[in-house]
Specification:
This protein is mostly helical and about 160 residues long. Among the domains are: about 15-75, no CATH class; about 115-160, no CATH class. It has helices at about 15-20, 25-35, 60-70, 80-90, 95-110, 115-140, 150-160; strands at about 40-45, 50-55. It has a two-stranded antiparallel ribbon. α6 (about 115-140) packs antiparallel against α7 (about 150-160).
Amino acid sequence: MAPSPKTGFHPFGHLFQVLWRYHDLLDYHLRCYRDIGKTFVLQIGPSFAPFKTLLNTSVPCNLQHILKTRFENYEKGEEVCSTMHEVFGQGIFGVDGKAWYSQRKTVSAIFTAENMRNEVVKVMLDNIPQLIEAFREGSAGGTRPVDAQELFFAFTMDTFC
């Protein structure tokens, strides 16, 4: 089991730490990476029977294990998929299980190291100024909400089609 931030023996695990730091959760995660290491666990609920276990890692071999080698052991779950669906729809980041595996196999042929080096990065860099401008125009300079899913979909289509 990966290390965790200290909680003492607390019946709610890291729940209150996460809630108290929700406004700066990314800073909290960064502090955990610095203090604990590049892989750590946050548990919601008691350590002997947590309600949720959140594994955080930035170690390449761990990411490969989770996202490729043993992906079936690390399902996002209905709650995460439901939340991700709001932004990503039924895309690879918003689905789990067989749907995720099928989409991953489809895109893995596109995202080879050679393709990324030779083609995709160049096209993405050419298209990024248009994406930024679309965000500026769509949000009226940051004064109104913008449909990020629509803009990212257009960016993706411009990049890969």
